[in-house]
Design brief:
Order of helices and strands: HHHHEEHHH
Shape: globular
Radius of gyration: 21 Å
Strand order of the largest sheet: 1-2
Helix content: 40-55%
Largest sheet: 2 strands, antiparallel
Number of strands: 2
Strand content: 5-15%
């Protein structure tokens, strides 16, 4: 049987494997297709880590993010880049100690999520201090009211102070 698209290659179904891959890759680039793909990835990750399943369905995931301004901005930047991995959307667990829960996830650019794997939100400065210090850090040792560590004396003199401090 010939492929319905290219008409050249042998196909088990309606498309040959090359045309099927091309069609699937294009689907992943659309707003909803990208989210569907990210949902499949997080489900695989959940099973691979033997975590409990997420507390949301694909439909709830789509409803949450299809109109999310952050996701739309990240997806637009990814599209404008020609779909470079360095601009692709990624599902981030806000608290990395907690599995995928609808209130514990957000969409961020892939490099930010990748960097977070080696650091924490507090180090990256991406979390509002009120989230991890409800009383605005008053009395929290080593952190100023603005959420910036104030214990710079623990950094050796010969070491450069990171920009986020």
């Amino acid at each position: 049987m010939k492929c319905r698209k290219c008409g050249k290659r042998k196909a088990k179904g309606v498309d040959c494997k090359f045309c099927h891959r091309e069609r699937a890759a294009k689907a992943v680039h659309h707003l909803e297709g990208c989210l569907r793909h990210r949902f499949r990835l997080l489900m695989n990750r959940t099973r691979g880590r033997h975590w409990p399943p997420p507390d949301f369905t694909l439909d709830q995931f789509l409803a949450r993010f299809l109109r999310d301004p952050d996701y739309l901005r990240i997806h637009a930047r990814w599209t404008a880049s020609g779909f470079k991995k360095s601009e692709s959307p990624s599902v981030d667990r806000i608290d990395p100690r907690v599995p995928y829960l609808l209130e514990n996830i957000r969409i961020v650019p892939w490099p930010d999520n990748h960097a977070k794997g080696a650091t924490t939100d507090r180090e990256l400065g991406t979390v509002d201090p009120a989230q991890w210090c409800p009383d605005n850090c008053s009395g929290y040792a080593g952190v100023s009211p603005a959420g910036v560590p104030d214990n710079l004396d623990v950094i050796p003199e010969n070491e450069e102070i990171p920009d986020w401090l």
